[in-house]
Amino acid sequence: MTLHYEFSPDTTEIATLELLQFPVTTEETSNSTTETDDFVDEQPITVGTARSEVAAAFTEAAATVITKEPIADTGAAVPTRIPEAAEAVAEKPKYTSRPATEMDIDKLVDIDMQAFSRVYAGYHQTPEELRADLTAKFQGRLEMLGGRWIRIAEKDGEPVGFTVACPTSKSPDSFESWEQTTDNGTLKTTYDPKGEYVYITSLSMLDGSGEVARNLLFANMLSEAIKGGYKSAYFESRLPGLQTWMKRESAQQGTTIDALSAEDQAEMADTYFNLKVTRNGKELPYDYLMRIYAQAGCKFVKLVPNAYADDPSLNYGAVGVFDIPVPKPILKNRVARNVVGTAVGMLARSEWAVKKLF
Known about the structure:
- The chain has 13 helices and nine strands.
- 39% of the residues are buried.
- The chain starts with 46 loop residues before the first helix and ends with a helix.
- By secondary structure, it is α+β, with helices and mostly antiparallel strands.
- Among the domains are: 18-87, no CATH class; 242-320, no CATH class.
């Protein structure tokens, strides 16, 4: 039996933009004249412009989260006003995140085994065999990816979840199954430091870890994706409500799932994948797990049969994509995208800002 991963169901002070004061001039731009794309003829994006826009966005987010009112105009430059906003939320947050280290491997395995206990219960492995297998995989991933792409969320200083992401040249359209995309979790042919995409290999969260902890991990992943200039980040989600919904729909038609042809099952699965509900005036996926990710900014682009073994999902998976919300000219400018990515990373240190972000 092969191991698979997907997304489980469910102490630092705020930094300031002083870290964004890189030793560069406002004349630095990308070498756009050598590029052949739709943006060649546009005005080059200067570092100064990117920095000021990010600072303004950070200030607005901080002001909205803290006071619900704009910060009064003091006539000072935006970056010098950021510490004033930061001081207002200097209380140590309940949720934080940090890079994983070798010392965390046992804890990563513990969290993964708890988060996917129902899934692993169907594997023909003893707990000891499963732990040894997972330990070897996490050691290999950490050696390959480092803490930049393996991030831990903590609640009151205790790890409650983590995410593993991997730069890759494999696109969302090429996804066939978790095992195929990740080489059964080893990432040997998945990892490509020069790839254009980020594949989110796994998200494991303990019960009760909280929405903020998960979104902290998403925000940090987004920060790294921006700094790396990647096109998008993607993953595959379970559809845990599919089996129950299909049973109910089949019963209403006077039949059962087992009695349906493969074509009829596939058609019903596609119908479920496209079902929508309205929440607070926004159209979202009917499946509750897909809905959680959609609320975090994900869009689902593909339904995949036999994505991995999961009875409630009838082995289907939904490929979800997080677009990188940064203009292409900024992504093509290494210094400018570092400015923007670093700012997002700073927002990700504050649970208040993350709530506002998502």
